[in-house]
Design goal:
2 domains; about 210 residues; minor pseudopilin epsh fold; three-stranded antiparallel sheet; Helix Hairpins; binds manganese (II) ion; mainly alpha
Amino acid sequence: MISINGYMFTLPQLPYAFNALEPYIDEATMKLHHGKHHQAYIDNLNVALNGQDKLLELSIEEIVANLAKVPENIRTKVKNHGGGHANHTLFWQIMGPPSGTEPEGAFMSAINDTFGSFMSMQEAVTQKAMGRFGSGWAWIVVSRGKLEVMDTLNQDNPLMEHKIPLLGVDVWEHAYYLKYQNRRVEYLKAWWNVVNWSAVDLRFQEALRSLSEG
Ligand code: MN
């Protein structure tokens, strides 16, 4: 299971304590979600990529954005488990202790231009998340220089459609079932309280920079 050149993907540490998102996201869910679910995606990804030394030189974002470079016999595994790794890595980064803050500056202006208001943007994401039948994610992405809302199936990532994810909310039941059972809408309402808008803003600025650099 160890690649010849020694590169393997590893579980990133949470940038806050497991109980830091309480009461909105409970400690037990965070421990399970990070330590078991995310770890399992990484373990399965490493098994699939064993011996693929060229691919193991890429970041997980580069891999999911370039699935055509992945040999066909492991492509579905890399899509599912690599997508799982990329999605959860983003998810931990764009959450944080409840702070009551909102987006600011150029990012808030872009939200207002696209959606009319901050609240309308949240409603649009929530609607996508509620409309996703079964497991998947809802996102705010940058596509052709503009903000967009979209959803994806399973562990698909917007990079697979050449869109840059800024914010993603996990609507697999494992993300909320312990605390909210089947009440996805309650989970989503609570989830907005733990979005780290400065982390999302940084991703927005990086996305614009990467587009201007072509
Ligand atoms: Mn998950």
